[in-house]
Amino acid sequence: MTSLPLPRQPFQPDVPDNGSASADVTPVFALKELVARLHREQKKVQDLLSSLGFALRSFNNLNQFLELIPLVASRVTDADGGALILFKPNGQVRLQQLHCQDGQECHDIRQALENLTRQISRDDSNLAASSLPPSALDYQVTPYLGSDVHLFGTAILVKNTERGRLYVFSRDPDYTWTPTRQKLVRLVADQTAVAIENDELTIELRKKERLDRELEIGAEIQLRLLPRQCPTIQGIELAACCETANRVGGDYYDFIPTTHDFALSKNQGGKPNGRWSIVIGDVMGKGVPAGLIMTMTRGMLRAEVLNGHSPSRILQHLNRVMYADLENSHRFVTLFYSEYDPETRILSYSNAAHNPPLLWQASTRTIQRLDTLGMLIGLDPDTQYQEAQIKLEPGDTLIYYTDGFTDASNQVGDRFDEENLTAALEWACQHYQKPQAILEHLFERVGHFIGPNTQNTDDMTLIVMQIKGNEENSKTGSEEEFGG
């Protein structure tokens, strides 16, 4: 605490006490003394405000900075003391800091202001202190300090919202609130508002940094859950890619061995010649919620596949299990589930309202859609799913995709749609021999359609599956047999 300035006396020039002072004081001398005094006061104010600005730049702790506010405000205005009252987000009013002379008088002022803030906080009609009319709080403070106190209060505004009041008071009967003094108090209040806003921005930045880190971890986990590479399956060649619009996406694709023994033998280096599930899905929505549901879908589906049921029965069981979890989330999952048998080249499939895969048949050089009736996963627990089969021939190419492809929009709002995707697939199958080249061509076509400066707002996932010819199968089998 700093002691109060000495009681103010009428200005008396400093002159030698030789008994003839009045004779030696001239108007010019008195004017010089007055100018010198004004310069000293101005320098004092400048130094105090400069120190406050330095504290604003240097302090990392908001409370440390707020401790200076009533002190500086009272010093720059030659007042007896100052008080800082803040309005908390929960509506409570709090005496944050008080500066006045040590002693019983200061104790009485503190107790009076604390009683006032407690009373306002208890009053339900005044809980939202920031909604009070300007200076309404001032009329309540004045009676607590006494009628002999000269009080001036100003608002602390953060983004045009009053977050508190800064008060400066004096008991000097000759003290007046000149425009200069009022301007200085408002200047200190503005510095206080800047400090509060900076502190809140720092807190928000730290929260954002933590959230960004959590999103990075979520994206990394999700990336690890997707297949790291396409499996080697007898008679077919695969290529797949998933591009998320955000760091965490809601698209899902997977390659799942259909039996536990086969999965075990695969992990131990056995030949991948059993039936495989090839699945693609899309969670309605984006970001972390969609990513969490995608992860849940993956785990439940992988467990269901090992039961050995047909594709339609697998979707039916998955829908019933996930319905309870998805019902309250207001999110649903589209899913296309298929099983490929390398021995017969038969693809069995069932669709839960997902975009139907497109099949390029090499023999007829035509494209057909693979689709069955079925509703979204999580929409109705009693949904029945249909099932179909098709025998694939050497040279056939099948693409599984999510609606990020067909819903991709260019700068004028036109969608890429299924017609353009079909045309792009037809051209690619006629000019490329490998699934990876077809996949890259389709992504390139979509990217060219939406434009170089436009980012797709939805996840895009694509699987390309191509049936090998008999000569390629024989070559692959020989390589496996002799360790090629």
UniProtKB/TrEMBL annotation:
Residues 233-467 form the PPM-type phosphatase domain. Residues 61-206 form the GAF domain. Gene3D superfamilies: 3.30.450.40, PPM-type phosphatase domain. Keywords: Hydrolase. GO terms for molecular function: phosphatase activity. It comes from the Bacteria. Pfam families: SpoIIE (PF07228). Residues 1-22 are annotated as: Disordered. This is Serine phosphatase RsbU, regulator of sigma subunit.
